Amino acid sequence: MVNCVSRSMKWLENVLIKRAFKDATQDYWTESLFDYLIWYHLGADTQSSDQELVYMLRHHLEDNVKAKNVIKLLNSFFKRTAIQIDRQNDTSKKADPSRTLQCSVLNITGATSPHKDDVIETNDRCDSATASYAEFDDCGGAVLIEQPSKLSEAIRLFLQGLGYMSHLSIPRYSTANRLAEQTAEYKRQYGSLTKVPRRYSSQVQQGDYATSYKNDFDDKPRNRAGSFSNCNTKF
Asked: What is the 3-state secondary structure (H, E, C) of 1-51?
């Protein structure tokens, strides 16, 4: 889960909401509404340091999203209730086993994400035997955009810890990861992939995706690989 918020609305968030909605209408975007959404998705640090990402998000909202739909969605989000999950503990008699998250989960956030404290709180409410926490340096709220390679690496290690993709090694796919990251960076800068410059191109050897590794992505569970133990991890 990326930037998961499991609590209900707090009083400080209520203040930010009133500021964002003070001039909002059902048909038009307002500066206060833009500021709140950009802060929510990116965080204050990324908002001040990466103007290009702010510009991209703002124009995406303005050109592709209707203000009245966003306002309706936010109204529902602000009325949310807390997710009823508890960590089962032998020393605690208040924990309800039926409210303990049974599946394995990876809680992901950025070091400067506005939801970092909420993610830590959510992770503390999950079972320590099945929950893991990953925090990325030099990253705000937009983890998928700011640090895609670190995110994919964390997910790969998490799956290997569950016994999947145990034979997948990093060197064989490092070229592909680098190409994906460079392509995403070029698309953010120029908005098109119709003509990629030579410096963004790289040769991928056929052996990187050899058919002899056909079991790398199968669905059969394997023994725990031990490469990603259930602990707090920083990248």
From this structure: CECCCCCCCCHHHHHHHHHHCCCCCCCCCCHHHHHHHHHHHHCHHHHHHCH
- Per-residue pLDDT reduced to its tens digit, 139-172: 999 999 999 989 998 998 999 888 887 776 655 4
Strands (DSSP E) contained in 1-124 are 105-110
Both tokens of 7, joined, read: 């609590």
Q: Do 19 and 54 have their domain in common? A: yes
Is 20 among the domain residues? yes
71 and 168 share one domain: no
Give the domain range for residue 64. Answer: 11-78
pLDDT digit string, tens, across residues 46-89: 999 999 999 999 999 999 999 889 888 888 888 889 988 888 76
Q: Does a structural domain hold residue 142?
A: yes
- Closest by alpha carbon to 9, among 99, 85, 108, 77? 77
pLDDT, one tens digit per residue, over 113-133 is 999 999 999 999 998 888 999
Question: Does residue 85 fall inside a structural domain?
Answer: no
For 215, residues 6+ apart whose C-beta sits below 8 A from its C-beta are: 167
